[in-house]
Write a structure and sequence with these properties.
By secondary structure, the chain is mainly beta. It has one helix at about 245-260; strands at about 5-10, 15, 20-25, 35-40, 45-60, 65-70, 75-80, 80-85, 90-95, 105-120, 120, 130-135, 145-150, 155-160, 170, 170-175, 185-190, 195, 200-205, 215-225, 230, 235-240. Strands 3, 5, 6, 8, 10, 11 and 12 form a 7-stranded mixed beta sheet that branches. A 5-stranded mixed beta sheet has the order 2-1-4-9-7, with no helix packed on it. A 4-stranded mixed beta sheet has the order 19-14-13-21, with no helix packed on it. The longest helix has 18 residues, at about 245-260. It is elongated, with a radius of gyration of 26 Å. The termini are far apart. About 25% of the residues are buried. The model is unreliable at about 1-20 (pLDDT under 50).
Length: about 260
């Protein structure tokens, strides 16, 4: 089981909640999977926490939006709808996922919303949500590269789209390669966005990549993804013309060529 904290924070006159956290569940059709979510109260008074399962959608930039209660979803359930927590106490809520045998493979996302009440009155202006990403079966995962642009001093601009039915956990690097596919340098290609839901598009800028002094020959930048994908077209990085690097390489090449004659 993977435990994800759903924290509800209280201060006497300042009300604060943690950022949404996530949990990933992979389950096969006809089987059941259970995960625990911990709810923690860090205030000084006894509070009641109301929990509910919600539908979730996404904006174009990937911001999750809570929708209607997921009362129509019978294959995803939470074990408790109300918790009573004393100061410093925490309790767990079980999320149970049990898709039917004939459910098609795919990805789904729900939110567990927690709202705190004190003496029956809402004490928070906003609730706390844990996003539940569910993969049922073995859906196809496939990414499309829509943009790969070099920005002069600000790294590379990337736009990827999840064209499959699974959840895309994007990993990859931007690499600088030269002759014989030699890797001269690389930088993390996806420093912030790791989870892309089916049908969603993400854009971001990577860290800059500096051509090392010893690089030689024709060079190009490429985005090398770890996921099955429609590859990004490489970007030319020009030609390394540093003579103090090229001359020894040429000399070695001539020596090897003459030895073979």
């Amino acid at each position: 089981c993977v435990a994800v904290a759903l924290q509800i924070l209280f201060a006497s006159s300042v009300l604060a909640i943690s950022m949404p956290s996530t949990v990933d569940i992979v389950v096969q059709q006809g089987e059941a999977q259970h995960e625990e979510i911990f709810v923690e109260h860090r205030g000084v008074d006894v509070v009641s926490v109301e929990l509910s399962l919600k539908h979730v959608s996404f904006t174009e930039d990937g911001t999750p939006l809570l929708g209607l209660p997921a009362d129509d979803v019978s294959w995803v359930q939470i074990s408790s709808k109300t918790l009573s927590l004393a100061a410093g106490e925490r309790s767990s809520v079980r999320v149970s996922v049990s898709p039917s045998v004939d459910m098609p493979s795919g990805s789904y996302v729900f939110g567990v919303l927690g709202i705190a009440l004190q003496d029956g009155v809402f004490t928070l202006q906003h609730g706390v949500t844990t996003l539940i990403f569910i993969t049922v079966g073995s859906p196809q995962v496939y990414e499309e590269c829509l943009e790969f642009l070099r920005q002069k001093d600000d790294g590379f601009f990337l736009t990827l789209r999840n064209a499959g039915q699974g959840i895309l956990y994007e990993e990859g690097d931007v690499a600088l390669r030269g002759p014989f596919n030699i890797a001269f340098a690389s930088t993390e290609g996806n420093p912030s966005f790791r989870r892309i839901f089916s049908g969603q598009t993400r854009s971001w800028t990577t860290e800059p990549l500096t051509i090392p002094w010893w690089a030689f020959g024709p060079m190009e930048y490429s985005f090398e993804s770890s996921s099955p994908s429609s590859p990004c077209l490489p970007i030319s990085a020009g030609f390394g013309y540093r003579p103090f690097v090229l001359l020894p390489v040429i000399a070695i090449g001539i020596f090897v060529w003459r030895r073979r004659r």
